[in-house]
């Protein structure tokens, strides 16, 4: 007999590192979810930019079921066909020559930072260990990646932190220039900061970082955990900018909801990672790579990527109309289907309140800090789902405006 559970059980049984919503989703289809009581939600959160093809996509279910009927896991003493096929797809679609599979974005960034340190130590010596990252960045929750992320709230309670990591101001090339020197082994940057407020990089900034890394023989790492796999309207966001990194981390949307991450690398960079230098038990398992292969088959097409750009316009046009009536936002920014609405006075600090009110109205949205409401829906979200969801979001915005005005 199945155990009956409620949201209150989370507070009794789970380690309190999350504050989940008051409802428990139990079923999804496309960009809709239903909770235990049968209430419907339009999902514009996308599992934090993970569910790139929505919920229960038939082709992904088929890929998972087909592989599950064969075998699930062997460990890294063996390779498997789905992993090799996925690696070749990623290599053919990007700058990369080599791929390392893992289970999450944090693991992909951990691997990138470890590779960068080893590359510098092998080629230049132990003195070359500096890492330059950016304020308000987010790269994961391991000790190394949370130290690289430029948000002290996530790292300060876990000191002492890994040393020789410094943080420049995002989109400020002069600030980065002050920190990058011949002791720098790597610069890690998000082409668009996600958790940091949905802030796209400027072309000049990323081009300048590429030039700085070339000048000082440092590796340029693009963290595309949130921006990758079609999220911005290109397969990877670096393709918007004409700037090619040495290493690129990808996860989230890569598995369409099944946990997987990957580090993409040039041949030169990958050559320093020899047998035993790094590893993972579950990374590259046949279940995850079979699903991710089908995700890439569907997303990496001109029709799908152009559709993301079209959907961006649907969202922005409607959000601007909502804003014209309510005045909640001072800026609407982002690329593709990663969109941030920056709150205006007197609504600053109310992003979480807006997201909770949106859920009550039947639409799921994200936040990116206290002042940004974030949208990261499925890349194939329908026009009807967009309109219905934004109708509900508009109701939530009207409620917040009335509450603040009263």
TrEMBL record:
Pathway: Amino-acid biosynthesis; L-lysine biosynthesis via DAP pathway; LL-2,6-diaminopimelate from (S)-tetrahydrodipicolinate (succinylase route): step 2/3; Amino-acid biosynthesis; L-arginine biosynthesis; N(2)-acetyl-L-ornithine from L-glutamate: step 4/4. Its main location: cytoplasm. Binds 1 pyridoxal phosphate per subunit. Pyridoxal 5'-phosphate binds at residues 105-106, 138, 223-226, 281. Belongs to the class-III pyridoxal-phosphate-dependent aminotransferase family. ArgD subfamily. PROSITE patterns: AA_TRANSFER_CLASS_3 (PS00600). Its cofactor is pyridoxal 5'-phosphate. SUPFAM superfamilies: PLP-dependent transferases. The modification N6-(pyridoxal phosphate)lysine is found at residue 252. It is found in: Cytoplasm. Homodimer. It catalyses: N(2)-acetyl-L-ornithine + 2-oxoglutarate = N-acetyl-L-glutamate 5-semialdehyde + L-glutamate; N-succinyl-(2S,6S)-2,6-diaminopimelate + 2-oxoglutarate = (S)-2-succinylamino-6-oxoheptanedioate + L-glutamate. Keywords: Amino-acid biosynthesis, Aminotransferase, Arginine biosynthesis, Cytoplasm, Lysine biosynthesis, Pyridoxal phosphate, Transferase. InterPro entries: Ac/SucOrn_transaminase_bac, AcOrn/SuccOrn_fam, Aminotrans_3, Aminotrans_3_PPA_site, Class-III_PLP-dep_AT, PyrdxlP-dep_Trfase, PyrdxlP-dep_Trfase_major, PyrdxlP-dep_Trfase_small. N(2)-acetyl-L-ornithine binds at residues 141, 280. GO terms for molecular function: transaminase activity. Its EC number is 2.6.1.11, 2.6.1.17. NCBIfam families: arg_catab_astC, argD, PRK01278.1, PRK05093.1, PRK12381.1. It comes from Pseudenterobacter timonensis. This is Acetylornithine/succinyldiaminopimelate aminotransferase. Involved in both the arginine and lysine biosynthetic pathways.
């Amino acid at each position: 007999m199945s155990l009956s559970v409620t949201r209150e059980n989370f507070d009794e049984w789970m380690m309190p590192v999350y504050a989940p919503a008051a409802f428990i989703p139990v079923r999804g289809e496309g960009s809709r979810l239903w909770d235990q009581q049968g209430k419907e939600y339009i999902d514009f959160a996308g599992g934090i930019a993970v569910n790139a093809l929505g919920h229960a996509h038939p082709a992904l279910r088929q890929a998972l079921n087909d592989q599950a009927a064969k075998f699930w896991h062997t460990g890294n003493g063996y390779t498997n066909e789905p992993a090799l096929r996925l690696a070749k797809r990623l290599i053919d679609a990007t700058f990369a020559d080599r791929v390392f599979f893992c289970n999450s974005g944090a693991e992909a960034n951990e691997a990138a930072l470890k590779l960068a340190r080893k590359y510098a130590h092998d080629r230049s010596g132990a003195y070359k260990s500096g890492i330059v990252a950016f304020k308000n960045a987010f790269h994961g929750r391991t000790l190394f990646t949370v130290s690289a992320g430029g948000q002290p709230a996530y790292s300060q309670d876990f000191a002492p932190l890994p040393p020789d990591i410094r943080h420049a101001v995002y989109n400020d090339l002069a600030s980065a220039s002050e920190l990058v020197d011949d002791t720098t082994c790597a610069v890690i940057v998000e082409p668009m900061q996600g958790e940091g407020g949905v802030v796209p990089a400027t072309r000049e900034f990323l081009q300048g970082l590429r030039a700085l890394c070339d000048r000082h023989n440092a590796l340029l790492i693009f963290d595309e955990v949130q921006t990758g796999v079609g999220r911005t309207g290109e397969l990877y966001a670096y393709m918007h900018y004409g700037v090619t990194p040495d290493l690129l981390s990808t996860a989230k949307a890569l598995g369409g909801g099944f946990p997987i991450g990957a580090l993409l690398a040039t041949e030169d960079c990958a050559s320093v990672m020899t047998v035993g230098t790094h590893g993972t038990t579950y990374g590259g398992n046949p279940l995850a790579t079979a699903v991710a292969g089908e995700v890439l088959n569907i997303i990496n097409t001109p029709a799908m990527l152009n559709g993301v750009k079209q959907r961006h316009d649907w969202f922005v046009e409607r959000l601007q109309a909502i804003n014209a009536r309510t005045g909640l936002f001072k800026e609407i920014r982002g690329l593709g289907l990663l969109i941030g609405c920056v709150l205006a006075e007197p609504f600053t600090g109310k992003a979480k309140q807006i997201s909770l009110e949106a859920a009550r109205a039947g639409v799921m949205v994200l936040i990116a800090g206290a002042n940004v409401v974030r949208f990261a829906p499925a890349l194939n979200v329908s026009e009807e789902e967009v309109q219905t969801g934004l109708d509900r979001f508009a109701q939530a915005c009207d409620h917040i405006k009335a509450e603040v005005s009263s």
